[in-house]
Structure prediction request, 201 residues.
Amino acid sequence: MRGSQQIRILVVDDESDNAELFKALLIKEGYLVTALLDPTKVIATLKEGNYHLVILDMMMPKLSGTEVLEQIRELDDDIAVIVATGFPTVETAVASLKLSASDYVKKPIDPVTFIETVKRVLEKKGITRDPEAELHRTIGRFIREGRTRQNLTLKQLARRTGLSVSLLSQIERAESSASISSLYRIATALRVRMSELFADV
Prediction:
């Protein structure tokens, strides 16, 4: 994964199938993931690495999720924790809230909802994987949407800007960093202020 910030996530679930599913989904999104089947090793693992988020199963032998969450909060009161449970109860919800769990997901998990929850929780903490990549994606999306609204093809936009179709396509797909000069030409061709390219950043 490119970028200065690689987000580290610790998955804690005593069932290996669940742990592997969480891990596979998160790795696919570009996160660095460690999976633990033994909840007694959580604190030692957190002390060893700089983790941004913990995915924590609530129903485990040896230690319950609530007990692990208590230990985590004694060590670190800021780290984001998403509670995962197949049996949500009022008691576990209240206990999780008291210990500042960031959110919870119901098992069996829906992959799309799970990843959305992870992204939302990290966003709330102000953690992004790669601010520069996010900037390129936002600009690319704005240009593509603006071009589409005006029914312009890439070829037509290339003619208006003097830039190549290939470069414009790469900028739209956030595969290339556009120079200030190129962005100025694109903004002029789309009849928008240059500052609007950065409006959603």
